[in-house]
Amino acid sequence: MRVLITGAAGLIGRQLTRALESAHELILGDIRPTDDPRSVLLDVTQPVSVCAAMRNVDAVFHTAIASGHEGDFEDAAFNQLRFDVNVKGTWNVLDAAAKAGVRRFVHTSSLMVVWGYGAPQSVASDAPARPVGTYAVTKYLAEVACEHVAKTHGLSVVCLRIAKPIDLTDPAWKRQRMRPQWIAFPDLLEAYRLALIAPEISFEIITVVGVSSRCRWDLSKARRVLSYEPRYRLEDLGYELGDEHEPLTVPPG
């Protein structure tokens, strides 16, 4: 399968490339192209750039986001970038994918879209949005765009609401307490792989988080629709489990 990864130079994009390159023909789209022969210039805010990268593509992993800050960071200029990349950019990629006859579109959403459901409330896999902060609003609006294009153009779309992925090969993470919903990268990559091949999907929103003794986000839809089953439990691998508001930044390795 010929698969375009947007944001291919980012954290998730790099991991997806390594996980999928033996099984698929990859096009690595990013605003910062590399010397990899599979790499192409892709600025999601520019429709012409997106359409050029979308030629002869069977599926898309949309991982491009406005990077540089995490959590509840608010800044007027950066929020404009968030809307440009996360909302307009997602629309551009969806529109190009629909016009190109792409068979499956896997969108990277965020658990922050439903962060407004306070503890100890259990949160359904496709719970109605309760975004907290500008980043979450942009990710919610991107989900709305995904649903619209799926219903009006017949594009098969899976929106994965993901938690922060943890690199199990980086020992620095063991110096920080884990939030209960954070997910081991191998489990997240498996969810992406299954989202690419799951049959009979028109539009689905599916939460993918790590399993822990304190996790309150429902994984039943991931199990039912994607046949997903997490294998890694961070607290059983020597990571210290904290609460939902542990700091987001790992100390430098």
CATH architecture assignment name: 3-Layer(aba) Sandwich
Number of strands: 9
Kindly report the name of the CATH homologous superfamily: NAD(P)-binding Rossmann-like Domain
- The strands making up the biggest β-sheet line up spatially as 3-2-1-4-5-6-9
Which fold name fills CATH's third level, the topology? Rossmann fold
How far do the termini sit from each other?
Answer: 36 Å
Mean pLDDT: 94
Give the structural class.
alpha/beta
Helicity, in percent? 25-40%
Overall number of domains: 1
CATH class label: Alpha Beta
Number of contiguous helices: 6
How would you concisely characterize the structure shown here?
With 253 residues, the chain is of the alpha/beta class. The chain has helices at 11-20, 47-53, 76-100, 134-153, 185-197, 220-226, and strands spanning 2-6, 25-30, 39-41, 59-62, 104-110, 157-162, 165-166, 183-184, 203-208.
Secondary structure elements and pairings:
Layout lengths: L1 E5 L4 H10 L4 E6 L8 E3 L5 H7 L5 E4 L13 H25 L3 E7 L23 H20 L3 E6 L2 E2 L16 E2 H13 L5 E6 L11 H7 L27
